[in-house]
Amino acid sequence: MQQVNLGIIGGGTVGSGVYEALQRNGSLLASRLGADVKVHRVAVRDLKKKRAAAIPRPLLTTDWSEVVFDPQIQLVAELIGGTTTAREIILAALKLGKPVVTANKALLSAHGEELFAAAQKHGTNLYYEASVCGGIPIIKSLREGFVGNRINALYGIVNGTCNYILTRMKLEGADFAAVLADAQKLGYAETPPDLDIDGHDAAHKTGILASLAHGFWVNPKKIHVEGIRHVSALDIKYAGELGYTIKLLGMVKPIADLKNRKPQIANRKCQVQVSVYPTIVPNTHVLASVNGVFNAVFVRGDIVGDALFYGRGAGKDATASSVLSDVGDAVLDLKTGAKNRLPAFVPHECAGAVAPIGEVVSQYFVRLNVVDKPGVLAKIAVIFGQSNIGISSVIQPESEEGESVPLIFMLHYATNGVAAKALAKIAKLPAVKGQPVMLRVENFE
Ligand code: NAP
Ligand code: HSE
What we know:
By secondary structure, the chain is of the alpha/beta class.
């Protein structure tokens, strides 16, 4: 049987997971691919470090170039993360015509176009299934499964760490910092975890999915990103009382017209919302029940209709499964001599653009802290009214007059620009204490 030598760079959570998975299912993979995948070298930073996988000492090196430039290695997996050395590694391997598998969404987000062009130039390929949603084969599904569909909307819970934190805050009333520490221990979080909790990791992934769905490579700087640091126990509680759950949602959809809320998808120059923010999701929607480290992507294609993908979004085994899927594709390409059989990214509708968040139309959950005295509610309602924003419901827990009390509004559709201006005016009212909280509501229409 043909043997393909794999060089792995990175022996941490994902690298160890890939090594272990190959030990466990290597012969199954060989029988399916008709080629035996052998781990030839593994590069790490610290040879003395204790690892989850028992990687034999002779395979280890601290010099990644010993992996990339080893003539016996035909396939390279970059699993170190970061955007500097990882970029250098991938470009060096592609230049040698070696296919590369990566799980590095931060790198793809920042340098995807350059790396895909390099793969094409050197007649090889760059595979990245593990970069989005851990074990869910969403890249393959968008690229291959939905090749005949226009993607009208895509909503994703794409960060396992944030979903794990929000779930435990909601179900157990757990403290943010303690749950984050657990997510780090479990190997879910990035280094540093700010990438997760500030929404950047989700933005990297959402940008990759948006690029595949809409055919133009999304500039990460154009993605509107808000993380989960400011989501409080109070917001979770009041959203729950109204029948909603807060999820960090990546969203990709042509922006809607405020009047009839029909997305403007008729022309190819469509403006696409590409964003990540904590979102109020109705408990009746399936995404509200995606809990813990699980991820889910809800895709609406113009031919297929609605489709849902669900699975573990982080952790060594789930991610290793996706790396092995890419290893499988790369091995088949090497076996058949196919060059760019499934190119990493094919630009196709380059006239599209990411819409500025101010033009995006949403519904809103607003929480204010106000002094309970006559006329306060009326003053706030006037500002919403003057901004042409309708109020769909109001909650105010009972309180003593003169006390500070939360005041929660559910608002009808408005552009984000108009809603933000109205809220800025409301924040200046003397009876409004502290910063108002505004979360967008998604009804998946
Ligand atoms: P990790 O646990 O921190 O592991 C990183 C590995 O890279 C470590 O083994 C480290 O060596 C090695 N390394 C770092 N710099 C190196 C260098 N210059 N030369 C050689 N080795 C080097 O990270 P991870 O969680 O496995 O993540 C790896 C990649 O997968 C990242 O791009 C991440 O975003 C992505 N990813 C992670 C997950 C997940 O659930 N963890 C899921 C999907 C994608 P030492 O061990 O000696 O320090
Ligand atoms: N830190 C990432 C997450 C790892 O929590 O989703 C998987 O990409």
